[in-house]
Amino acid sequence: MAANRKVLIVLSDASSFPLYKADGKTVSQDSGYFLMELAKPLQKILDAGCEVTFASPEGKEPTPDPLSVSLAAFAGNYYEKNRELDLIERMKKENGFSRPRNFSEISDDELKTYRGVFIPGGHAPLSDLGDNAELGRILHHFHTSSKPTASLCHGPWAFLSTKYGPSKQFEYAGYKMTSWSDAEENAMETVFRGEIDKVESTLRKEGADMHEGVAKSMGSITFDRELVTGDNPMAANALGDKFLEMMAAT
Q1: Measured between alpha carbons, how far is 201 from 186 in angstroms, rounded to an integer?
Q2: Nearest residue to 13 (alpha-carbon basis) of 54, 51, 45
Q3: Tens-place pLDDT, residues 204-231
Q4: What DSSP assignment string belongs to 171-223?
Q5: How far is CA 232 from CA 34, 36, 123, 151, 215, in A?
Q6: What is d(CA 148, CA 225) in angstroms, rounded to the nearest whole number?
């Protein structure tokens, strides 16, 4: 990999997402970043010798999705769960994870120093990333510069922010991509007993070429130009590997 090894990691400030109830009310459902969707690619990025910068809309301390820190999320693997929690604690001490950079603090000149951008999932991005103009500006830079861009699960919702950036249009129209599927979200709606914004169908309406299905739900990733995307936590390792491969090639 070339000398420039800086990676920007985009996170949500939200600790919940909107859940639309049958009676017309909207409630806040607890959420945040999904631990393994962040930790697995992050560990690979660090192991490759990259420097990471965390950023969010307002620089608030990121909140983990409660479901993602349960032992069930790790299929009972206590040691893997603790490894990933320990990584986040290390990031708090060494990399400013508790105080992410505010999007607006990152200038266009500073953006030129980054080699790639990574946006993990969890439902939180539904709350504050899709319509953020500053994020739209940031992603506009990575898109127009053809710099590696990685995201999975609900993270691709952030791509909608390009509609509020400099071009005022969805900049990933025609791109093949994968996200948390509508079918998976429908299953979550039965658990939460409410309706949730759909990443797959919303991106498709904007012109994205969505690739979903059994292979994707089992961890297969989608690659198109500067973009690599995945469906759910099972894609985290493959996504991290491809992201590093893409950065090494640029």
Answers
A1: 12
A2: 54
A3: 999 999 999 999 999 999 999 999 999 9
A4: TTTT-EE--S-HHHHHHHHHHHTSB---HHHHHHHTT-EE--SHHHHTT--EE
A5: 10, 10, 11, 10, 11
A6: 8
Contact between residue 18 and residue 197 where contact means Cβ atoms under 8 Å apart: yes
CB atoms within 10 A of CB 175: 22
Q: What is the dihedral of CA 14, 223, 170, 204, to 10 degrees?
A: -90
| Dist. CA 121–CA 171, nearest whole Å | 20
Spell out, as residue ranges, where the chain has pLDDT lower than 50: 1-2
Supply the pLDDT for residue 1: 47
CB atoms within 10 A of CB 64: 20
Counting every residue, how long is the chain? 250
What is residue 71's three-state secondary structure? helix
Helix (H, G, I), strand (E, B) or coil at 126: helix
**CB under 8 Å, gap of 24 or more: what pairs does 85-94 form?**
85/35, 87/39, 87/42, 87/43, 88/35, 88/38, 88/39, 88/64, 91/42, 91/52, 91/54
Measured in whole angstroms, the distance separating CA 242 from the mean position of its chain's CA atoms is 15
